[in-house]
Amino acid sequence: MAGHHPPVTDFHTDFDHTDPAWAADPYPIWADIRSSECPVAHSERYGGVWLPTSHADVSAVAYDTEHFTAQSVVVSEGRPMIPAPQGIAPPISSDPPFHHEARRLLLPAFSPKAVAALEPFTRAYCHELLDSVEGKDVVDGAVDYSQHIPVRVIAKMLGFPPEDADTFRMFVHNALEGVDLPIEKRMENFALLDAYLREQVEDHVANPRDDLTTFLLNSTMDGEPLNPEHVGGTIALLLIAGIDTTWSAIGASLWHLARTPSDRKRLAAEPELMTTAVEEFLRAYAPVTMARLVKEDFEFNGCPMKANEWVLLPFPAANRDPAMFENPDEVVIDREENRHAAFGLGIHRCAGSNLARMEMTVALEVWMERYGAGFTLADPESVTWSGGQVRGPRTLPIAIG
Ligand code: HEM
Fold first, then answer.
1. Is residue 42 over pLDDT 70?
2. Does ligand 1 have an atom closer than 6 angstroms to the CB of 283?
3. Which of 72, 95, 261, 353 could form a disulfide linkage to 84, CB 3.0–4.6 angstroms apart?
4. How far, in Å, is the centroid of ligand 1 from the Cα of 203?
C-alpha cells in the first residue's frame, strides 16, 4: 500500500511502519536499528512512536503493564475512545485486572480439543479451494488460497454467513491497513463494521445457536452479562485478529517454500518435519507487530517516553535478534530450539494460537499433498506484501508443475 505520509528517508529518526520500503522488506531496517547506538528508535509521526528492536526490549515492554496500556494496539493518528481497562476490543485492548477475566472466558473456544474438532472442516475446505483451481498453471497462493481459509473458519465459529467473506476482508483491510487515513475516514470505516456486527448480534439474540456469538451473549463477568460494547468488541477482535494474521502466516510459508527448492523437496520427502517447519515459518516470517501507549512520562532504557506516545512491539524483529536465535535470518525447517515470539509475549499472548497452528498446518499439508515439490514462484517481482502492522503476501503467483 502506498502510504499517505511522506516517504521515509531515515528510519532511525523518522520511521513509518506504513512506508512501502518497510512493507517490502523490514528486516534490514530492524537489523540496522538493533545494531546501532540507539536500538529503540523514535519517530514524530502518529503523535510520537517508539520502536524497540531487540528481543529483550520488545519483551520488556510487552511484560510491563504498569507503564504501558494496551487500550489501543494499532498505531494511528488518533487515540482510543474507549478507555482502559476494557478498551475497544477486549481482551486485546484491556488492561489488568479486567483483562484476565475477559481473556479467560474466551479460552475454552480455542482449546486444543475445540480446535481439533474444526480440523476436518478446515481440511475439507482447503481441498475444495485447490479443487477449484485444478488445471491452472499458475495459482495465487494468497488470493486463491491463504486468504480464504481463516475467514471461513472464523465465520463458522462465530456463526456468520460464509458468503460475507469479502466484507470481512474489507473490515480487516480498513482496520489494519487504513491506519494512515484521515481520522474521519477511519471513523466511517469503523461505523461500517459496527453496523454489520450489530445486525449479526441482533440476529443471534433473536435466534440463539451453538456458536461463539451466542456463547459470548450468554457469558457473564462478575455475575453480570457482558456489556454490548464488550460483546461487539470481542467479535470484532476475533474477526480481525483471526483473519489477516493467519492468511499472512500461510502465505509467507508458501512464499518461502516456492522460492526455496531445498526446503520444498525436503518437506515433500519428510512430511513429519511439518511441526518444526510451521514453528520456523512463524519465527522467521512472524506477521504481527502490536503496539502499546505510554501511560505517563517515564524513562525506558534511557529513552524519554512521553504519555500517550505509541510503542510498536515488532515481534517479527524480536524473532530475528541474533542475541536470541542462532543465525536468525536463516530458515531452518527442523530448528530444535525455537522459543519464538510470533504469538506475542506476556499477558496478551495470542489466545488463538492453537487455532492458528492448526490452520497453518492443515493448509500446508493439503498444499504439499497436492503439489509435492512441484511448485515455484511464477514471478518473484509480482509478489506484493501488506503494509502496516500485519505483514504477509497479498499477491503470490505460484507456477504449478
Ligand atoms: C498465525 C496467526 C496468528 C498470529 C501470528 C497471531 C499473533 C498474535 C499476537 C502477536 C498477539 C499479541 C498481541 C499483543 O501483545 O498486543 C495476539 C493476540 C490475540 N490473538 Fe492472535 N495471532 C494469530 C492468529 C489468531 C487467531 C486465528 C485468533 C482467533 C480467531 C487469534 C486471536 C487472538 C486474541 C483473542 C488475542 C488477544 C489475547 C489477549 O489480549 O489476551 N489470533 N495474536
1. yes
2. no
3. 95
4. 27
Which segment, 65-79, 153-167, 324-338, is predicted with the most confidence on average? 324-338
Atom 18, ligand 1: residue with shortest CA distance = 350
The pLDDT of 337-341, averaged and rounded, is: 97
Query: How far, in Å, is the centroid of ligand 1 from the Cα of 237?
Result: 9
Question: Which residue, judged by its Cα, is nearest atom 22 of ligand 1?
Answer: 350
Mean pLDDT over 222-230 rounds to 92
**More confident call, 246 vs 5:** 246
Mean pLDDT across 340-349: 98
Residue 246 CA, ligand 1 centroid: distance in Å: 10
Select from 343, 358, 360 the residue to mutate for testing ligand 1; criterion: most ligand atoms less than 8 Å from CB. Answer: 343
User: Is the confidence at residue 112, as pLDDT, over 70?
Assistant: yes
The finding on whether 251 has its CB within 6 A of some atom of ligand 1 is no
